[in-house]
């Protein structure tokens, strides 16, 4: 693990699902549509898995998500689910479905006005991650939106390392903000102060045990000591 550089952050890196975006407000109807279509196409004839199983996998790479959600499915079904999930997510976002967590937009604006560069680092697909930012009106606040789908990284540790390298932030004081153990690992492995979002309910509370700080309201980011 790299030594943490504390102090006023030059940059703040955010996870997307469960951190900025209240994913279940979009994913619950999308999940239903995905499995209805798979069944219509004869690719998955089992009972629809509970949506809680999908929500619990947020933060994983997509191929790992389907292995957990429908472990008895064929590779063809999983590949088709990839396509349908993105299609229905983007359609839902365009139709106004899906909400940011309370106070996200204004807090991001204040952090940016205070001089911090803002980034997203997500294990999701590129079009989805950028789509959330675009359709929810926060894309212009970020200096970069990084996704595993765009860069083909095998872990969030590698994705965050690439982001830091690309923007000359290696060794600089930065924060990593997220709700899953993968976010904490990515931050700590890259020497960042890790902030766990305890308001999200998609993972287990124990996933944030190693975070340096935990917050229960997004606005608390503005109150943290420099």
UniProtKB/TrEMBL annotation:
<dbReference type="GO" id="GO:0006281">
    <property type="term" value="P:DNA repair"/>
</dbReference>
<protein>
    <submittedName>
        <fullName>HAD family hydrolase</fullName>
    </submittedName>
</protein>
<dbReference type="GO" id="GO:0005829">
    <property type="term" value="C:cytosol"/>
</dbReference>
<dbReference type="InterPro" id="IPR023214">
    <property type="entry name" value="HAD_sf"/>
</dbReference>
<dbReference type="InterPro" id="IPR023198">
    <property type="entry name" value="PGP-like_dom2"/>
</dbReference>
<dbReference type="InterPro" id="IPR050155">
    <property type="entry name" value="HAD-like_hydrolase_sf"/>
</dbReference>
<dbReference type="InterPro" id="IPR036412">
    <property type="entry name" value="HAD-like_sf"/>
</dbReference>
<dbReference type="GO" id="GO:0008967">
    <property type="term" value="F:phosphoglycolate phosphatase activity"/>
</dbReference>
<dbReference type="Pfam" id="PF13419">
    <property type="entry name" value="HAD_2"/>
</dbReference>
<dbReference type="InterPro" id="IPR041492">
    <property type="entry name" value="HAD_2"/>
</dbReference>
<keyword id="KW-0378">Hydrolase</keyword>
